[in-house]
């Protein structure tokens, strides 16, 4: 069985994680190409990972015959267009979340994808490939907690990133807290419950960095959602967790509750010292989701080899963006917002 | 120092807890009288606790000179009127929550209370007297978690009570989930943050017992609140926790987070068996808050002896009911509701 | 029912805990007398607790008719003789552990106790009255963990006491780590398993305070014991826990394991801050065993009223001292020591 | 850089784990050969892992030039001889623990290894490559818990293996509990403390399966060890944990304590159901140490490429077997045994 040849676009922090996985940890593939406008990033691909073909022009890479598939890890605003280009050039496509920032644009991309049913399309909601989330999902699907009544999702970045974010936010648009931070949790809500969101209200507060009020950004925000079958969803997104990278999910059912990462344990070590009984915490997403990134990429390659589509599709991309935008609108207008669906 | 003589009204489940504490565990007081319409309850007071004076007429008890203070543990609908009567007859008053079910009635009672500044008035928000809540509050007040951005409160009763509740709800009005169950959590929101609630949205779902839809009751509900300084509050109230009596509170601040009873540990025992690593859970409020009830009653007696008013006052009673009613109205009308204050 | 009138001897740290409980928290008794050679301690009893009769002569107190029972909280070396005196003067007796420091002396006291079967005798192994230990014991007795194969007991005092202990040890004899610290755990071994100890080996190390080697004292020690039915016991005793008062017990059985206080949680609060996820720890025995002391004293009073003997008897006192002494001898001689029984 | 070509011998349960890792998850190597007497195992290697060269004669494999290194996962009794053969044929060697079952034989192998300093020799104490153990070791080496006073190691297999073990033990010699099960923990004691063992006492009990007494085998055993600097070590080894695969290590120091896998959490999921708050448990070593096996094999390959020897050497193999044998002798003779060193 010949190896799937992959070209990556975007070699920032997350791009490097993906590139190294594709080059070293994924069975059945080769990282044969890399595309970036930053010469240092192409040097990294060449020297550290042995990537043979480098490109500064994305379209050129998608047209070349040194790759079978692209891995898009570029800034969110480019995703739709890069998906379209790769699809039209006959390549399989993996793209990082979000699929896009604008609903209409995503719908067009969705159409492009639909027209190429033989090419694999996958969206990077990697939590679905985390061992603990999969264990939880299997319990739910087995009926072990009964019918779901409520889901609570926290996604809070560690405080150490705050200062650089504030600097960034003064001159840039992150897309807003809900699109930037909560989109993984929005996907979890839909994936875990199997329900669409009906209505949302979102609020937020800037406490440590009140200057974010001027930037129209949020340090911490919360959204409450009613799903179509009345299931409740509570989301907290933030950028200022003193203890680390706090991604926690709780699902309440009629027969039990479960929590994934109730606290963000870094490993299996417990320390007892003058502070009390201490469990060290995960500090960032590459640490917490290291294996999930590997399993996700492995699934992408397996889908190509098995000629099947992955579970996460373009509609998931459309709806997650739509809900995130509804949260933002709710916050901006201080009103209840209804979320549509197709 | 002579002992404070107390008369109790209401000897149901919680009434018996209070009566036994007053008779046996509180320093500086005597339980000298009991009032009930149920002869068996008066027999209990006489025979088990050695209460010398029993009454079937509440007003008569408040007028008698065998007591200095009343302890009101009757159904919520009677609280306001019973407070008024006792106050007017010169007695100190402790009443269980809620202070009342109707805002205007509470305001009148508040006026009565205000006119008797030398008589102690205390409202039974006993969680404020729980050791763990006091530890958490002290940490917050010491600035150890910085400025509060969000508070999350869960108050969920164990599943074993569901069937009798459904039966009850078919023929009675509980006042609604938010007034019946969430009022302690509403008090915690105000106490922990020191802020008033500005706006609420409440939702709910009946999953295991859909017949509650007809009764206008809820198995599980959630409310999101924005406080005056934009601090966020998330409340979950319910009656259907498979594992026990789940009362959990989380406070997020700019420098750290804390949780009270992250899971409802029953005691310090951990079991490892075929289910995994298991921590047994608290099953009901007398078990979880046994000591808090004692400390609360002790504080009431101490206030009388020290001629001072407790921290929990009539305004706390007014606001907690007001917010609970706003949650209920939000749920009933599916809209954002603004909460007033005086 | 008239109240049991109790006289206490010894009003040091633990004596004050007991005295306050007897005066304020125990039903059916009165603290009517106190005996001490320290005038300030008698002042405390008189002024803070309202004790009417104070004595500097212990025998005089035991002969007086203002008491029905004595509560012995004096230094360990006096216990046997004070038990004898009280028994001979017709009083019920509670004594703190250990019953004595010398096996032969304990046997004589045991005989005295046996000759007064109508007087209650109780030994202060208060852990048996702790809610979590009782829960664990009930699980074991119900067969929930099957047959016991191993028990592990930790009893480690917080570091903050080390410096004063070192100073003390330079000029005094504590009786040795095993008699001074491990005796509660030795009682737990016998109580939980229902087995006698057959053979022991004990070792120890002074690391932070090597000067204890000169004093013949230990900072931390361990003992392994084989019980008569081959059940294994592991004990760790120490004085230098950085995080607090670490009393932990584990019981392994053929169907499961259980742990009491796997870590010494202070309360139900969890903190997430720059150190990680933190559970504050208990700092001392009055904090950890507050309720156990109350329940223990209550049991003593109940035994007197019910004319029955408590579960903990003189033989428990004999064996626990015997085993502690065997541990010490094993450590001193670096050899396996067989423990006798009667 | 050309890839290290590896031949594996032994394709049982653990052998398959290693083989798959070498074939799929380790960078810089190829699994080019496999040796087994079981035809099905060679089929597995060929068909599932694409191994090109299969052997039924081990010496032949070590002489062939299709491999640079051997990976020995055969029964323990063959390890020494297979190491010798491979060394003499110029191959790098990885062998599973224990290095051998007989001290004199290990010493001879040690000499052989010493004579081939340019060939990498590595012993499979994979826990040293587990992330949590490495985190703990780094804390210790940084002085974060001060000087070590005591180490406690549990290694208990899940109950589900008991019946087949009893059957096996009736007709075979496992080497005894301490050599079979405790050897990883013995290595941890030496690795964590940096000290040699001076003296041991070992005890044991068969409770669920008393027939093991006849077989001279143990269901559960414990050993206490005094190390050369008086540091204490407590080991519990067993085969009958109801909840799963319980490998736990605790290190006490003068400034704090730490525990690795205080309970054997399977993942990050917490369940709240009718049993209480439940954490699922790891069920076996491939699950618990999946990543450690990968990192261990990666280290072996890296050592070959970097021309350096790994941290775990033949002397570690000698001492760990020596200590395990001393434990067994102590149990067999019911006496304290001194452990030698070279």
From TrEMBL, chains A, B, C, D:
Record-level Gene Ontology MF annotations: inositol 2-dehydrogenase (NAD+) activity
Superkingdom, taxonomy of origin: Bacteria
Keywords assigned by UniProt, alphabetized: Oxidoreductase
Domain Gfo/Idh/MocA-like oxidoreductase N-terminal positions: 4-121
InterPro entries named in the record: Gfo/Idh/MocA-like_OxRdtase_N (IPR000683), GFO_IDH_MocA-like_dom (IPR055170), Myo_inos_IolG (IPR030827), NAD(P)-bd_dom_sf (IPR036291)
EC number annotated for this UniProt entry: 1.1.1.18
Extent of the signal sequence: none
Matching Pfam families: GFO_IDH_MocA, GFO_IDH_MocA_C3
Alphabetized PANTHER family for the sequence: BINDING ROSSMANN FOLD OXIDOREDUCTASE, PUTATIVE (AFU_ORTHOLOGUE AFUA_2G10240)-RELATED, NAD(P)-BINDING ROSSMANN-FOLD SUPERFAMILY PROTEIN-RELATED
Family stated for the protein in its record: Belongs to the Gfo/Idh/MocA family.
UniProt-recorded name of the protein: Inositol 2-dehydrogenase
Lineage: Bacteria, Bacillati, Bacillota, Bacilli, Lactobacillales
């Amino acid at each position: 069985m010949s190896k799937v040849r992959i070209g990556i676009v975007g070699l920032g922090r997350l791009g490097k994680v993906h590139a190294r996985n594709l080059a070293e940890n994924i069975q059945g593939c080769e990282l044969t190409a890399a595309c970036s406008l930053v010469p240092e990033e192409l040097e990294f691909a060449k020297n550290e990972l042995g990537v043979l073909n480098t490109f500064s022009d994305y379209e050129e890479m998608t047209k070349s015959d040194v790759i079978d598939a692209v891995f898009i890890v570029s800034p969110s605003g480019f995703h739709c267009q890069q998906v379209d280009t790769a699809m039209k050039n006959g390549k399989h496509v993996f793209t990082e979340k979000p699929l896009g920032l604008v609903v209409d644009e995503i719908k067009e991309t969705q159409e492009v994808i639909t027209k190429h049913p033989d090419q694999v399309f996958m969206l990077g909601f990697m939590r679905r490939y985390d061992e603990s989330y999969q264990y939880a999902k299997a319990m739910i699907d087995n009926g072990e907690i009964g019918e779901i009544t409520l889901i609570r999702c926290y996604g809070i970045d560690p405080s150490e990133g705050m200062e650089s974010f504030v600097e960034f936010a003064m001159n840039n648009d992150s897309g807003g807290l809900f699109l930037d931070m909560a989109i993984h949790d929005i996907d979890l809500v839909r994936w875990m419950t199997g329900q669409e969101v009906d209505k949302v209200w979102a609020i937020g507060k800037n406490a440590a960095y009140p200057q974010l009020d001027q930037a129209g950004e949020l340090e911490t925000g919360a959204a409450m959602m009613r799903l179509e079958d009345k299931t409740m969803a509570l989301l907290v997104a933030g950028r200022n967790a003193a203890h680390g990278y706090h991604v926690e999910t709780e699902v309440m059912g009629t027969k039990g509750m479960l929590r994934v990462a109730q606290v963000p344990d870094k490993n299996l070590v417990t320390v007892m010292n003058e502070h009390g009984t201490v469990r060290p915490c995960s500090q960032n997403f590459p640490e917490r989701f290291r294996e999930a990134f590997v399993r996700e990429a492995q699934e992408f390659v397996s889908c190509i080899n098995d000629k099947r589509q992955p579970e996460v599709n373009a509609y998931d991309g459309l709806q997650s963006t739509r809900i995130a935008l509804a949260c933002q609108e709710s916050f901006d207008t201080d009103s209840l917002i209804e979320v549509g669906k197709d």
